[in-house]
Amino acid sequence: MTLEAGDIRRYGDELFDALVARRAVAPLTERVADITIEDAYAIQLRMNQRRIGAGDRVVGKKIGVTSKAVQNMLKVYQPDFGQLLSSMVCSEGEAIDTDRLIAPRAEAEVAFILKRDLNGPGITAADVLRATDYVLPCFEIVDSRIQDWKIKIQDTVADNASCGVFVLGGTPRSLRGLDLAVAGMVVEKNGEIVSTAAGAAVQGSPVNSVVWLANTLGALGIPFKAGEVILSGSQSPLMPVTAGDSFHCSVGGLGSCSVRFA
Fold first, then answer.
1. How many domains does the structure of the chain reveal?
2. Which residue range(s) make up the domain with 161?
3. Would you say residue 73 has pLDDT above 70?
4. Cβ neighbours for 31, distance < 8 A, ≥ 6 positions apart
5. What is the pLDDT of residues 126-149, one digit of tens each?
6. Distance CA 67, CA 235 (A)
7. C-alpha–C-alpha distance, residues 245 and 174, integer Å
8. Burial call 36-66: b when 16+ CB within 10 Å, e when fewer
């Protein structure tokens, strides 16, 4: 790390205040030339500590920037992670108010719900399969507290991996007999198909993505907990959202998820 503790607090508080006020701030990488990814994760921790102090609680983890489509769009070429908090959970039937967000973009993916803890490093795909209670199709609505999505990896990491809100859909499905790598996903926006992909678009399989995160967090002393939601990474491009939009994704063997905006 290159930043002093006071700077970590200041930038974490700035991002928390931006979240509350729904206003974006200038990219950290334009203001702090030597900011490291380690600095950015420390800032993320401070931002989330402020959220938890305001009454939020951790309900899971997310993996970001896993597919080539998203990496090329954002020009960020390595995965990152963030914490999912209780205030991010939205029900499939409710319309999400775009006024609570800054610059929302929708992405479709697969969510893992855990039935037992996972403590990395050393986690394998078999461990993830055993620890997963069920999977669901879902939408994550990412959002950026960084102006105009002008982000480098350090910016999105500091901003809690650009977490916004998320919606779980479908019927819980066991991973037994289900190969997520070949499960096809079709995404529609306002009734028109905008994306098709298979699970292999995410690190070869969403399971591999969860393995990477379990081991990455485990090396930092952060376990996966039973009951947590793990978002495995987008299989679709990021799709801009405005009030009145609706999205629908269907995943072979998993069912579908829908989200609409007001």
1. 1
2. 59-261
3. no
4. none
5. 999 999 999 999 999 999 999 999
6. 7
7. 31
8. eeebbbbbbebbbebbeeeebeebbbbbbbb
Is 186 inside a domain boundary? Answer: yes
3-state secondary structure the chain: CCCCHHHHHHHHHHHHHHHHHCCCECCHHHHCCCCCHHHHHHHHHHHHHHHHHCCCCEEEEEEECCCHHHHHHHCCCCCEEEEEEHHHEECCCCEECHHHCCCCEEEEEEEEEECCCECCCCCCHHHHHHHEEEEEEEEEEECCCEHHHCCCHHHHHHCHHHCCEEEECCCCECCCCCCCCCCEEEEEECCEEEEEEEHHHCCCCHHHHHHHHHHHHHHCCCCECCCCEEECCCCCCCEECCCCCEEEEEECCCEEEEEEEC
In a domain, 20, yes or no: no
We report the CATH number of the domain holding residue 213 as: 3.90.850.10
Which residue has tokens 């974006």? Answer: 24
Sign of dihedral through CA atoms 81, 87, 91, 94?
A: negative
Q: Which of 85, 80, 83 is closest to 37 using CA atoms?
A: 80
Per the prediction, the chain carries an average pLDDT of 93
